[in-house]
Automatic annotation (TrEMBL):
This is Sulfotransferase. The keyword Magnesium does not apply. It is an enzyme of class 2 (transferase). InterPro entries: P-loop_NTPase, Sulfotransferase_dom. Gene3D superfamilies: P-loop containing nucleotide triphosphate hydrolases (3.40.50.300). It comes from Camelina sativa (False flax). Residues 57-316 form the Sulfotransferase domain. Pfam families: Sulfotransfer_1. It comes from the Eukaryota.
Length: 319
């Protein structure tokens, strides 16, 4: 077995060394696999996932491009699935962060081990998350009826959110020069999990072709009509609200529980630390639509708009 594993490592290393590579704005090496850029260690995890993951029919996988509302989608999904169980007191969201409750496949589970023990996943159904594009995610899923939910967000807000996030990780002020570099790499398409347009379009097309198994949600719609979108999510996941729950105000309770204000004020999210040594609090900032207007110059915004317009033309998608 150890020999087999060595063979697999050698196979992965030789595959990775044959892939196109580039350097991102932070000077880190990225490799392009199936049209998407990854850091090498995450790519090993992606390959392990593709080789070893065995889906269960009931699995739910939450997907996103980073900074698109992943944390919110995770919290909402946990809350929806938990609602028939205990009262708020023992709610899982009060004892772990949304990222602890819905672990990333390639950035957590398969990063720590090439064959993680998924029997230890305590949620039922099992909940996973990913930043892989749909075609890569789907390889080991084959004909599995498991459900995939994708959250997308306005690209300019994603960039500004990413800028703040990276600055916090690097413990630096968010400076205009680093925003400039992020915009550059966005427009070039060379960034971790990018290009964003291929990422979003893989799920957009997937949701049109296979709406029973792929749900596409926009962050802006969640902000504008949270009630309707959470009902939609519940229907898709096969746990629709009953009339009685609606009268009891269950939808509102879930929305309040998962609001940025409430989640970010829970002790676990104020003081806890994630699997990757990051403070849980780093995942919560403003959570507003169009915050980019406070940060991007007209030139930057125009540049991004031009790329987005070109890449999304004819897709019917507005981001
Ligand atoms: P901002 O930086 O614009 O505030 P992700 O979860 O994919 O990492 O995305 C992080 C973004 O989602 C951040 O955006 C964060 O503030 C916002 N966010 C986190 N939790 C949220 C919630 N419960 N409701 C709305 N937005 C939320």
């Amino acid at each position: 077995n150890i020999g087999d594993d060595d063979d697999v490592r050698t196979e992965f290393r030789s595959l990775i060394s044959s892939l196109p590579s580039d350097i991102n704005v932070q000077g880190k090496k990225l490799c392009n696999y199936q049209g998407c850029w990854y850091y090498e260690k995450n790519l090993h995890a992606v390959l392990d996932y593709q080789k070893h993951f065995k889906p269960l029919d009931t699995d739910i996988i939450l997907s996103s491009y980073p900074k698109s509302g992943t944390t919110w989608l995770k919290a909402l999904t946990v809350a929806l699935l938990h609602r028939s169980k205990d009262g708020i007191q023992s709610h899982p969201l009060t004892s772990d962060s949304p990222h602890g409750l819905v672990p990333f496949l390639e950035m957590n589970l398969y990063l720590k081990s090439s064959t993680p023990d998924l029997t230890k996943i305590s949620s039922s159904p099992r909940l996973f998350s990913t930043h892989m594009p749909l075609h890569t995610l789907r390889e080991p899923l084959k004909d599995s009826p498991c459900k995939i939910v994708y959250v997308s967000r306005n690209a300019k807000d994603v960039l500004v959110s990413l800028w703040h996030f990276r600055s916090k990780i690097e413990k630096k002020e968010a400076e205009i020069s680093s925003l400039n570099s992020i915009v550059e790499s966005f427009c070039k398409g060379v960034d971790n999990n990018g290009p964003v347009w291929d990422h979003v379009l893989s799920y957009w097309k997937g949701s049109l072709e296979d709406p029973k198994h792929v749900l596409f949600i926009r962050y802006e719609d969640l902000k504008e009509e949270p009630y309707a979108q959470v009902m939609r999510l519940a229907d898709f996941l096969g746990c629709p609200f009953t009339q009685e729950e609606i009268h009891r105000g269950s939808v509102e309770k879930i929305l309040n529980l998962c609001s940025l204000c409430n989640l970010s004020n829970l002790d676990i999210n104020k003081t806890g630390v994630s699997w990757n040594n990051m403070d849980h609090s780093i995942y919560f900032r403003k959570g507003e639509v169009d915050d980019w207007k406070n940060h991007l110059t007209t030139d930057m915004a125009n540049k991004i708009d031009m790329v987005i317009h070109e890449k999304f033309q004819g897709s019917g998608l507005k981001i």
